[in-house]
Amino acid sequence: MNQYSYRRAQIENDEEINFIAKIDNTIPAKFDSDFIINDKMNEDRAKFLKSCKEEDFFEVALDTQNKIVAFHLVKKIPYFDRFAGRVDTLWVSPDHRQSGLASALKKRAEQWAITQGLDHLHTWVHSDNQKMISLNKKMGFKTVNYKMRKDKKDFNQITVTTQDNAQTEFSKSVCEVEIQEIIDRETQAWNEKNVELLLSIFHPDMVWVWPTDANKHDPMTWISFLGKFNYDRWSKVYLDWFANYELKHNVRSTQKISVTKQGDGAFAVVDIDTLWVTKTGEISHWHGRTCKTYTKTASGWKMISQVGVLEY
Q1: How confident is the model over 1-8, as a mean pLDDT?
Q2: I want to staple 118 with a disulfide (CB 3.0 to 4.6 A). Which of 52, 113, 126, 302 is the partner?
Q3: How many CB atoms lie within 10 A of CB 221?
Q4: What is the pLDDT of residue 168?
């Protein structure tokens, strides 16, 4: 019978984290042909893994040769006024499958969830990953929602007639759905304190301009402290923010989405009420109306600018 030992992943160990990141990226690639693995993907995944906090569950299993043969990551995330655990990955080396390792790691995560006082654990599994689906059901997980997909080739195109009676071949309704998806993704990223997900919405030329006060409509008083989008710099800013601030609530409501007649640009008006509080009681309250501008790129919609939160 195999003997295994368990320990927390060493996020300060570049060799270990890069090893886990490369393997971790192969998991979705097995089930999603759109998921392409390259050096940038591996680097981004390694950055995400290194962002794990002490309060997160991130363990590896070692064989008798002290070699990593399995790992499991569950992030502690806000869930309304409580906290939940989001399963980000679970992997067992092919040579050690059917040994009970996956179940053992999931049980250890459940014990961690109890000590953290979490409301629940949740996970996403590809519909073709039947082994993981079976394991989750065996461990007591229940299906609570479905992620459904429709490929671009199956979209129902409509013809939009412009004022000059020119015909443009794009579906405005599809664009609006895509814009709402990126809005929802941003909301999810704030809720989960997920830097990788948050940075996925920004265009490389994004410059974030921010009013110093929600009642200061005059742009003469606005500031831009982040500079042009830079993955490493912005990542550090948000990692520091998430480390110092606790999210109390984050309510966002889309009031309007407007797509250009060419289908290559859009803006969305979103009302937000986002409250952050530090351990010392310092408050940062984003409350008011924003206008988010998006541009269509080869890889999808990206936010390229935003008028920060203002009261109207």
Answers
A1: 86
A2: 113
A3: 10
A4: 46
